[in-house]
Every structure is written in C-alpha cells, then in structure tokens.
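Human: Note token order:
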Amino acid sequence: MTESAWDSSWARRRSRLILGSLLAVATVAATIQPVRSYDLWWHLATGRIMASEGRIPEKDPFSFTRAGTDWLDHEWLFQKLAYQGYRVADWRLLLPGTAAIGLGTYLLLALSLRGRMREAGAGWLLLALSLAGGRFRFDFRPEMLSYFFLAAVFAILEGSRHEKRAGLAWLLFPLFALWANVHPAALLGAASVFAWLAGEWIQLRLEKRPAPIRSARFWIALGSPLALLLNPGGWRLMMVPIEIRRIVASGHAPNREWFRPQWQDFPLFFGSVALGLLVLTIPICSALVSPLLAKRRRAIGPQSMAPSQEGGVGGALRSALATIDWAPTLVLGLMTWMAFQQLRNIGFFFLVLPLALARPVSLLLEKGRVPAWAAGALGGVVLVLLTPVFLREAPSWNEESLLAQVAPEKAIRFLQEHRVGKRLFNDVKFGGYLIWRRYPEYRVFIDGRNEIYDPLLKTIFAALGEGRRWEAMLDGLEIDAAMLRRGQVQKVEYPSATAGAMPRRETRAFSVAYFQRSSWALVYWDDLSLIFVRRGDPAYAGLLKEEYQVVNPDDAPHLVQAIRSGQVKVEEALREVDRKLGEDPRCVTALALRRQLESLKSNPSN
C-alpha cells in the first residue's frame, strides 16, 4: 500500500469512527425517554411468577373477570429476563436496558450499510432520519428487542452474501428461535427474509448473474423461519397477531397503536414515504426520458450515442432498475404497507429505510458530484443537531420522573392504605401496575392483553351508552370500587325542558356519566386517576365521610357553570381543592383548578 493510499484509508477509518460515535450518542439520546408502556408491569409480574413457580403460565392468573382462561404467553423470555434484571437493578435497569438495545440495533444497521454502498456518506444522514422517525416507539418493551433482531437478520443476510462467509446464514436459525419467544414480530422477520431473498433474485436477474437458488446459503436462509415453531405454543404463535388485529378491528377494543396513521400526527412518516418514492423513481424516469431526448437530438444533428443508450429505452430501463437495491427495497415495501395499516409498525419502516435508500441516494450524490465527505459531514451535523432535540424529553435520573406516566403510585398507596377495591373496576392502562403492586392478594378487572379479554371487551362496549345495562354489568361482576383514568370526557345529551325544543348537549366527564353520584362516591383523585367507592358498602363507611361532594377535576367546566348559576358555592369547591393540596401540594390539576376558582371568586362574571 502506498503512503497516499494509507493516508486515504486512515482518513476513512477516522471519519467512520467519528460519525459512528456521533450515531451512538444520538441513539442513546433517542432512547432516554420516560417509560410509556403500561404493559411493562404485567410483563414483570409474569416474570415474577415464572421465577417463583418455575414454569410459564398457561392460564390467566391475574384477573377476576377472565381467571383461568387459556393464555399463550408469547413474550415469556423477555418477561423472565426483564424481571431478573429488575430484581437486581430496580428502575435503574430501564433506561440503560433500552439504550443498550438501541445501540446494538443501530450498530448492526451501520455495519449492514457499509456492505451495501460504495461510499457510506449518505448512510449517516439516513440513519439520523431513521432515529428521528422511529424513536417514538423506543421503550423498555418486547417490541424494542424486535428491532434488534430484525437488524440482526439484515446483518446476517448481508454478511453471508459473500461465498467465504455464507455459513453465517446458519445463525438465522437460533436467532428466529430466540425471537419467537420474545415477541410475535418474529413473524414479520420471517416475511422480511422472504422479501429479501426475492429482492436478491430480482437483482441478480437484472445484472444477468446466476440466480441465488443455486446456493446453499439461499436455502438455509429460506428455511430458517421454521425455527419460529420452537416456542411453547408452536404453530399457534402464527395466529397471535391475526387474532389481536381481529379484536382491535372489531370496534369494541379500540387501541390507538393499531389505528392507521394520520398525516397530522406523523408528518415525518408520510414525508419519508414520499422521499423514498422520489429517490427510487428518479433513475427510472431518467431512463425513460433520456432515450427520447437523445432521439430528438439525433433528429436535429448527428450525435454519438452514450453506451447506456445503445439498448434503447429497454436497456436504459434495465440499467435504471439495477440501481435499485432490491433486497431491502422489497422489505421496505412490506414495512410501508404494514405501517399504513397500523401506526405501531412505523418503527419497523424507519428501521429498514436506510438500507433501502442508501445505494440509490449515494448514486444520486455521485451523479450530482457531491463529495462523499460532504454527505458524511452533513449526516454528522444532523446527528449533532438531533441529539439535544432528543434530550429535551429526557427524564431526571429518579424513579418518579422515569415512571410518572405509567405508575399511579399515589393512587395505589391510597387503595392499599384503605383496602379499597376487592373487586376493583380499573382502566385498562392501570391494569399492569395494579397487578405488579397488588397481585396475588387482589386481582384486576382488565389489563393490556387484548386476546384474553375479548369477551369482556364486547360486554363493556355493549353496555356503553345504556345506563341500566352498565349498572347491571357492574352489579353482576360485584364491582365495589373503580379506578379511572383522568381526562376521559364524552358528549352527554339532556332531554329538552319544553315540548318541541332541541335537546341540550354538553361535554361531561366519563366518570359523571358512568359512576353517578347517586351510587358512587369520589374519594380520591390526582393528576392521573380518580377513585370511586360504592355507596352502601359497609367497608367504605369511613371513606364516605371524606367524599369529594363538589369537585370532580374531570368535570371542571360543569363545576364552573354550577358556581355561576348559584347551584354550588365557590367556597365549598375551594375547601375541597385546598384539602387536596394539603395531601399533595404538587398536584398540577389542583393548583390549576385553585387558580381558576380564585379568579371566579374575585370576578364571578369572568
């Protein structure tokens, strides 16, 4: 190697080291977020059961509504490992664990990009886009491991392309066996392998090279998804995503993660899809137009034809199609379709995006005579700029800040102190934490496992809007208390006071409509939850003395209206709010409500 070649090689390695470090920092910053998965807690509780009983549960152990129902625990390996880690490190496991998985994922992506590009400058920019678009799905949950496994699949497929390393393809078998016991997205991984191999076949046909089906590596990779059967449920794992999708699509189990994405909520996703289509179609459009322009120029005067034009439109089109990196592009097409079906798949779309666009983007930059170092520098700048943006949402390094969204600790302490809720109606988002904190002494009404609660969800949905049926459902299940999520409101219609007049409609709290004061007493509230107990239950006679008779924080507009009309005295409302602030001086809702009531007291017409 000459001195100049050595200098050039060292410069490239130094550049990759710097940009790789910037990617690592940005990846860690993207993963440092408050925990958002309410399901974390029942995952940990399941791991706790496995640790104590030494077996994977096959029946639902957690609820009183579906106790004993068959349950295929398709994420048992994650649960077992997560619980062992949580038992040692407590909440301190969550951020480092998520960051470690994220780092491993993007390291594998960066390694795969190196093998698919002549110059990796554009890859860093695409990796930055991937982080920005997919980070809303980063959390300590089984899905996060699916990103790592999918990136590992791509790295193995990429690494095994070379004949000397074809044996790497055997690693797909143990990878799929592990993945099948961690998260059902392993099925998406299998579909990605099929799409990738189909893309390789197309690529080789366009380049007039031997088809890949002649290699042992092709058949090893094609057969590797058979390892998915190595899970406790066997072939039943294949039905899990289909069953959950059916339940969510039924209408009685709305789950935002399974909704179609909307432009106003995910503009970066829609913009990235448009960018991908543009990058992939530019060479094709150019191939179709260039021969026509050449023909027009020949009609004007003699011109020499470029080699790429000798085959006419067909040859130019074939050459243009060969510039597409078909293996990851077909996978990206699959992920795009999946992401348009359910927004929860947007993370997988952004994971594949850099691999699919890296080669065509680098070719476009070459044609535009953009130096590789300039593209790499731009990627590095974007990574640097994104890092502080990501860190704006970083929680403080303490348990309360990290778990504030998913751990209603204050409400749980109230339940435990007063022994409330032997048969507690709970919001689905609180089910996991109730299991973690109260099981086995108390079981839950519902949690996040849709496949377990399908019949119950049908019953709940049928009872909504019909007061008598709702009360009959609560009575039939012997519900003695309720823990509701804050902020749930709905339209309520009141019959007209006079004949022929239009009925009056207004927005009221869900709790007001479904846990009416005649039968239920509000005894606790905070920024996350409301707790009601049933009137007439002797166990709650003492709590009824501390009932909030005037203030329901979710029904504040109606309270203001009642004060203005003279039905409620503002002093009564202030006393209840001050009582809450005496218990919890940092309650954001109480502080805001007090300011509103003080303003109303000083200026009743305000």
Observations:
- The radius of gyration is 30 Å.
- DSSP finds 25 helices and six strands in the chain.
